[in-house]
Amino acid sequence: MIGDLLELAGAKGLDKKELSVQTNAPAKIMERGLDLLRSKRQAVVVDRDLGRMVHGELFTLMAEKLVAGLGEYHQKHPEKPGAARGEVLHVLGDGAPDKLKNALVEHLLKTDQVIADGDVLRLPDHKPGLGADQDKAGAEIMKRYQEGGSTPP
Question: Looking at residue 133, what is its pLDDT?
Fold first, then answer.
């Protein structure tokens, strides 16, 4: 029942007080249910102060979306070392609370799915370099330079 309520709540999630009201369950029983859900990663705490949680599947999907968004950023901007947090977090939309976004980034950092260099995020296998078109242009310049020899035209 708690898992269903978390699923319905979406990205906003629910805190313990809201769950208590909606389940009308005694505190001990509700806490045992939450412990079970958290141990199975079916409920993820995104705000420790309020005890706000989201459904585990939603958290996983949003984490995957964040990683995919960062991958797309790397494809569009291969020369950059990574993306600023704000640039990447926009893929989650405006409906996701900031605490959820921060929890997602922290989870991805802890699990080494994302690397942080200051405020810049990148995928672990990303190495900044030239794009394919820039590689081609560089090769053409080098070819002409080698053909021309060491004297100016």
Answer: 61
Cα dist from 32 to 20, 29, 113, whole Å: 13, 5, 31
Cβ neighbors of 106 (< 8 A, separation 6 or more) are none
Nearest Cα neighbor of 72 from 121, 138, 134 is: 121
**pLDDT reported for residue 105:** 92
Distance of CA 124 to the CA centre of its chain: 13
pLDDT digits 0-9 by tens, 33-55: 888 888 888 888 888 888 899 99
Q: Are 109 and 120 in contact, with CB atoms under 8 Å apart?
A: no
Cα–Cα distance measured from residue 114 to residue 122, given in angstroms and rounded to the nearest whole number = 6
Q: What is the Cα–Cα distance from 133 to 27, expressed in whole angstroms?
A: 62
Distance CA 124, CA 151 (A): 44
Rg (Cα) of the chain, in Å, rounded? 23
